[in-house]
Fold:
Amino acid sequence: MKNVSNERNFAPYHTGQNRTQMTPPAILVVDDEEHMLRLYEKELSEDGYQVKTATGAEDALKIAQNGQVDLVVLDIKLEGKNGLEILSDFRRINKDLPIILNSAYSTYKSDFQSWLADAYLVKSSNLEELKKTIRELVNF
Amino acid sequence: MASRNDFFRCPQAQQSDLNCWMNLVTQAKVLPTVLPLPNLSSDCFACAYFNQNMSRSKGRREADQLAYSSLSLFLEQLGFYETQLDYTTSNLSKRIEELSILKKVSDALLESKDLDKSFRLILTGATAGQAFGFNRAFIFLVNEKKKVLEGKIGVGPKDPQEAERIWSELRQKKVTFDQMTKDILNGQTPPDTNLSALIQGINLPLDANLSLISKSLLQRKAFNVSSSEFTQIKEERLFSILSPKGFAVVPIVTERKNLGVLVADNLITGEPILDEDVTALETFANEVGLQIENLLLQKELFLKLQELEHVHNLLRENQNYLLKHEHLADMGKLATTVAHEIKTPLIVIGGYARRALSNLKNEKFDPRDLEIILSEVERLERLASQILDYPKETKLFLTKQDLNGIIQEALEVLEERLKFSNIQLKTKSSKDIQEVPLDSQRIKQVLFNLIGNAIEAMPQGGILTITTQKKKNSVKLEVEDTGKGIPDEEVKNLFIPFYTTKPKGSGLGLAVSKKIIADHKGTIGVQSQVNVGTKFTIILPLNS
Structure:
């Protein structure tokens, strides 16, 4: 796993390097729990992010290809393709896109596929750690 | 022309070499006895020549002489006959006794399952009273691994004092051989005379050059070892045990195998051992050889059985241990799945509660956050009641029902889903199952679960086959799909409560189905192959 505190040459997913200070970073949250998505959406948008949501792999990839995405918060246990498979798909397209795996389970940490992510955070009702990691990764 | 020899020939016997008793006796004075005197036989009294000579001699001196000499010879011969008869009779009675002992020992050996008891029987036979009549007897057995003859057991007194004590005791109590064999079979052996202990440490090399006793076995020959031969042999330890006057050694063998030897001596009485005694003992050893072989095989078998039993016990213990741990592992899996099931709603509730708390004071507070909290709490409540409901004893309402009819009713409910998923339905029904004792609601629930799973396993469509079949005392119901199948490592967990491979599954469908079938005293099993399909098989008893 990459060290999240590293200064990195951040490459926005779709729009290249053109992000200005005026446009807030776009965060894609992928989760199949409706209420969870709503919570993340509210909390992150209140922090100033532009929040996009998807409930499955297909939606997630479509959103990433059609618009600006600067970071992905990715649940693992999903219907259809699971988060680790989606992670591989994203990496095949853009190896620099910051991705945070966010699961209720800690067991996937031992799955080497999860090592492709920039961070692995176990879900918690306290979103402070998630927000802190996002801030560091998108430099916002 | 008659020769001199013809004169001596018996006139009765045609062309025989038999000599005439009369002619030989009458000529004895003239001719020195050149020919052996034949026995006077009953035929002579019927012989005309004999009678003629006898009657002619009456009243004449010469003839008196003849009568006298013939009578004395006659008496002498009678005496010889008598001794021979005596000898034959005693021999015969001894032989009969030997045979009776042999028979008794053989019979007792058939009853005996214990090697030690059997040896004791054999040796008691060899030392019993008048039959074989040895003072003491020993058994040595081959140890194939060590290549030695091992001293096993000895019967008889150790020394004259002991002999006096034991033998007078036996005389007083009038113990018969039958009684002795019975006692041995019942495990009431006379107090050990330490004779066994004396020979048990003795190992003789299985080499004909090194040991006379081994030689007997290896050459399969009986020996009557005299004292002079005895002193020449090198078996010093035996020298101190066996009679210095000599001993008998006979092999115990079967066609296939050299088993051991029987050694016997007369230490106490010092009576010489006759060759006939050795022959008799050899016959005895031949007879019991087969039985000893059987016993040895039996013992080996018994040991193997014991070994197997031990292994079996170990396995059973391990199985219990494994089962216990499997149960614990199930509990662990159950706890894990439940914990995960609870975690998501808790995170959501917690997240919204934090929001609500921090937003209460400002205008951002949104009452809809509380609604979400409530709905997640309800979800938890539902989950909790599912868990609490699960292990409850369910009461069945058993009635005799047509199983095919129930399957039909279940399929009607699922008809739309099957059509929508592009699944072709095949049923193969046995007509003979109209009276199966079952709880129709529960069985339908099982069918919904199984068919529902089958539909989910075939998102691209496929074939669902439902088969019923009447067996002798049961009904077999199979639900088979052509879906994606279940990997081996998941199959074993299928029936564990709350275990699920489906993102939205409760993990209860199959667990509940198994419980329902078990309540019907039936069984449910599964066979599955990835990318081929899955088949659930239910057996329901007809007489529950």
